[in-house]
Amino acid sequence: MVGFVIVSHSELLAQGVCDLASMMAKDVPMFPAGGLPDGGHGTSFEKIASAIEQANQGDGVLLLMDMGSAVMTAEMVLETYGYTDVKMVDCPLVEGAITGSVLSSTGASMEEIIEELATVAEQKKFDF
Amino acid sequence: MKANELIPIMHAIAARIEKEKDFLTELDNVIGDGDHGINMARGFKVVETKIDGLATPADVFKVVGMTLVSTVGGASGPLYGTAFMKLAQSLMGKEEITLGDFLPAFRAAIDGISMRGRSHQGEKTMLDAMIPAAEAMEAANAEGKSAKEALDAGVAAAWAGVEITKTYAATKGRASYVGDRSIGHQDPGATSFTQMLEEVAGGIA
Q1: Dihedral sign, Cα of residue B170, residue B175, residue B179, residue B181
Q2: Angstrom distance (rounded) from CA B110 to CA B120
Q3: pLDDT tens profile B155-203
Q4: B3-203, which class in CATH?
Q5: Please, what is the angle between helix B3-31 and helix B57-71, to 10°?
Q6: Sign of CA dihedral B117, B34, A43, A94
Q7: A123 CB-side CA count, 13 A
Q8: A90 to chain B nearest CA, in Å?
Q9: Does residue A124 have a pLDDT over 90?
Q10: Helix (H) or strand (E) holding A97
Q11: Helix (H), strand (E) counts: chain B
């Protein structure tokens, strides 16, 4: 199954998104990379790199980020390690994590999940 | 300049950032997320423990860049980290660097920040100090001025760039959410860059 890493400035937010997605897709590898190693807010290169290692069970890993330095730091981890099976996805964090992990639990490939996540931002929560 | 001359400059930058920590944070409180000074000081404190004894200027820049990426925690980490790593890549293998070596490396650093932050001049970022500094140093070098004179010209142009950041709204990062309310405030990243360049200028003969 494709694994996921949730990168956020907040340790609690990253953990919370993983908890919520895991409830909906319990066997999918979901690992948080939130906050700084000392517990403060920010994004940590080491936490992202280590979460990727844990999330990769052979079918690749998708990274979902909140914003700003989370995106830039994730990008630097990918450049540094030169992974071929780890990709960043630009989508809403919570909705993307749930859609992606549920799809992953059905055995979808990384490419299929990326394609689906590209549409998540356009899905409306309600019609006026 | 050799590594043994560059290392004291990096320590001077670390001391300057520590000294300016509260001021930078105050600037960032107004328009950003209020962590620029604290984050930069945390990064450079670790930098100070890792650079002594390194062999070449490229080694120093590389260690500074990697350390900032892994310790700063905010957007300035990947941005300055990328800049220092680009300096390292450009100066790789040189025991001693001249102004003529530094200027293209500095341009590579600017391009690196622009790529990482997906930003350009005029968006109220560190680039608004870096690009005028590069232009002024290149002009001084073309006129045959010394490295010291070129750096001084770069610092003056960078401070002018910082002043200009007060005149427009931010369109990148957290500051972009406050919109026109960021007008009138100088950019913290442009400020910290200029303080660093001032330490470089102060550290060369």
Answers
A1: negative
A2: 10
A3: 999 999 999 999 998 888 777 888 888 898 999 999 999 999 999 999 9
A4: mainly alpha
A5: 30
A6: negative
A7: 12
A8: 15
A9: no
A10: helix A93-105
A11: 8, 0
Ordered by where they begin, the domains of chain A are 3-122 (3.40.50.510)
- Work out the angle at residue B113's Cα, subtended by the Cα atoms of residues B110 and B115, and round it to the nearest 5 degrees: 110
B178/B171 Cα distance (integer angstroms): 9
Q: Go through chain A and tell me how many residues it has.
A: 128
In chain B, whose CA is at the least distance from the CA of A45?
Answer: B70
Phi-psi region of B82 (alpha: psi -120 to 50; beta: other; left: phi over 0): alpha
Substitution target from B45, B72, B86, B176 for chain A, most A beta carbons within 10 A:
B72
Lookup: tokens for A50: 């280590």
**Which residues, 6 or more positions from B70, have their beta carbon under 8 angstroms from its beta carbon?**
A44, A45, A46, B77
ipTM of the complex: 0.84
